[in-house]
Amino acid sequence: QVQLVESGGGLVQPGGSLRLSCAASGSALSIYTMGWYRQSPGKQREMVARIFSNWNTTYADSVKGRFTISRDNAKGTVALQMNGLKPEDTAVYYCNAWFGRHSWGQGTQVTVSS
To answer: Each residue of 7-24: b (16+ CB within 10 Å) or e?
Structure first.
């Protein structure tokens, strides 16, 4: 099982940028589908972006063109570059690893507000 630790959240003004990072340990990252999910109060957790072991990526429609997911298997890290942030992007962001079962990080808060 892989252990995940997120970092990089914080408070940013609308239109600003943040970069989230996820450090994975305990297993070889290359075999996993990695993803970022988010959850805001009163809403279900939703997929934001995923990157597969073959490096293909998928994004939620709401973040296409603004967010970019990347991975570095050698370093065991996954990043989410978020540009053009909007107040509706405010949520707790979770790193996820999937290979037959899900593993989750503890989450990092992103707040977009003026």
So the answer is: ebbeebeeeeebebbbbb
